[in-house]
């Protein structure tokens, strides 16, 4: 299993106190223009379903920019603004960079500069938003080292969630956008009759939150977390703002994660239990972030897509409602061993971004920055990436080694599986 650091994709417009001159004017203009965007449906029932794929545990939907070819956009409940990224597939688009704006996210290295693009039309299926102002984030403003690592072309979030009710159906691998129902009470009763479980989801500053219970070190706590399909992890908790009594599990490992505003430091340990819409999720790894916190609206952390993807979900910003239904009979936990590597997508396969201390890799085998081209004889690419990582997780309990091929290496390597620190007798 590849436990990747939670990449925070959502873009929070930094406080106006940080802006001056033309940047202040541009930010005010950005917020005003968001209200002037026009919604268009090409179906009379004002609903459309589009297929999605997953890539590094993100929900990737096809989105066209100004009528062009469909590109890879992340469906991100935590994104307060729509973003177009500089990627191998958007680099041919000529975007003006004359309206700078500061953006921020997790990390302690300062807030980068992106650019405002006006009069953009985004389309998916039979739904489009025209005259939209979006953020254009160049590679310098993204948590990647090169365009080859930028595996998505944009992020859609609040602009879509504020204008539609969105259903994420993992069973059929499709996302349905629909005009919000005229009668929320009728819609609510229908969903409950169909077996959905309701969870109140307050929305602050275009960002959804829920209150939930987590059990850590055999102690139960109530926490407020952001619902964030743009996070690739399970759960991130901000140590500086957590309720009194929350402690990091004794058995953990240390990991850095990279966000828009730089690097964060984390300790990764096992959570005993979390309740979500009446369902229990047991024994999963969480990031306890000690540096680089980015709390929003008094929240304690971020609930990521590694957990959310175990449910079909209906997200209703207008009525601050979240409906969940497990896609299997029971919600599963995934804590099996893995390679001791942090692997992220790359245009040419998967790039090694970190080698953890508990890794069982022989010394001088791999280096950070190496490109993995195949695992267990399957080429690593955008189509296979998630399946391969899941296969590693499933097979690791029955196999002690996994074959890994590295670009530029003449031979492939038989890599031993690395037990997680909490599976050892001695914690860190």
From TrEMBL:
- The reply to whether Signal figures as a keyword in the UniProt entry is no
Q: Which UniProt keywords apply?
A: Hydrolase, Protease
What span is annotated as the signal peptide, if there is one? none
One GO term of the biological process aspect: proteolysis
Q: State the Gene Ontology terms under molecular function.
A: peptidase activity
| InterPro entries referenced in this protein's UniProt entry, alphabetically | Aspartic_peptidase_AS, PDZ_sf, Peptidase_A2_cat, Peptidase_aspartic_dom_sf, Retropepsin-like_bacterial
| Keyword Hydrolase belongs to the record | yes
Residue ranges of every copy of the Peptidase A2 domain listed in the record: 71-107
Pfam families according to UniProt: Asp_protease_2
Q: Which PROSITE patterns match?
A: ASP_PROT_RETROV, ASP_PROTEASE
Extract the CDD domains matched here.
retropepsin_like_bacteria
The protein's name is: Aspartyl protease family protein
Source organism of the structure = Fluctibacter corallii
Q: Which lineage?
A: Bacteria, Pseudomonadati, Pseudomonadota, Gammaproteobacteria, Alteromonadales
